[in-house]
Amino acid sequence: MYENDLLEARNLIQKFGQDWRDAFPDLYEYVEKNYFNSEDRMHTWMKAYRQDEFYAEMDTNNFVESWHNHLKTHFLKRHFMVRADRMVYLLSEIVVNYFKQEEFQAFVRVGRKTKGEILDIFRQREVRAMSDDTIREHPLHLDNKYCVKSFSNSMACYDVNVDSEGIMTGCSC
């Protein structure tokens, strides 16, 4: 189930029961017994239970198929009959190091960037190119709150709350 919210997911399960229990009792009994019966089972197939996991976005076996294709193409060079010791060596030495390098490059932001990351870089360049006077015009001070105009959207304004010592305590952005 692709619902992110646990409460909404449970509502959908109830709706499934209302819609299908009478029309297909055998099907509903099977699904109830094998999928809806225990919390442990629901953890394995409901997206709502996987929100805090590193693999939360892996919803289909397409990720596994993609991984197998990558492994066969790049590491096995399309040789399908590989001895077990060679496979263990590849996985433990070559593949692990490859993914460590990929993770490090993502961490330090080297390599390919997403469209959002590219737009962020352009916005940062625009802000750096602004004069100090233009930047000073963006925040408006009201009591213990600043209204900061967006650099990218002239219609947007963000409220930044500060305490009596000038420390930021909240933001609407």
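(ticket continues) Second input and output from the same batch:
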Amino acid sequence: MIDRDTQDEAECVDDRGLARKAADWARAHPFQTALHVGTGLVIVAPAAVVAPVLGAVGFGAGGLVGGTAATAYQASHGPIVARGIFATLQSAGAGGYGVPIVHGIVRAGGALASALSFGVAKACKKEQPTATGNGSVGSGDEEDDSESNYGGQDEKEAGDTADIDDPQEEPSVE
């Protein structure tokens, strides 16, 4: 007899089971999915992100592109320091020594963003209390398949008396 944990592990190894679970998770967490896909792209293929951004700012393959932020910066700041940030970005745009430097920085940023998003998601999950049917507040780890947060009870049954007058309360006379 196979115990439940072994069966769950076997389903994860099955390609269809894994794909189904990943798709379900992605549907349930669209923001996190987009963030992880984006940071994964940045980590795996930084050129797909870096080249268009550098081009848009004005660091082109043939040098600076006229009428862009890069030329405005250079015109307002005078001579550019060799091997400085601006020169490294210009080199990266032209495919020179700046490419591995900029790609490394972008990859590190992507990895940091992914790690931070994972940490924030874990922290938020722990801090979100959920109401349970017995009136206590849970840790947020329980699954609630009902459509309300009152354990399947209607709002009126759960004690919502916002529009009901209390017969024991005396109206105030001023």
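Agent notes: The radius of gyration is 28 Å. Residues 10 and 17 are 9 Å apart (CA to CA). Closing as not reproducible unless the customer responds.
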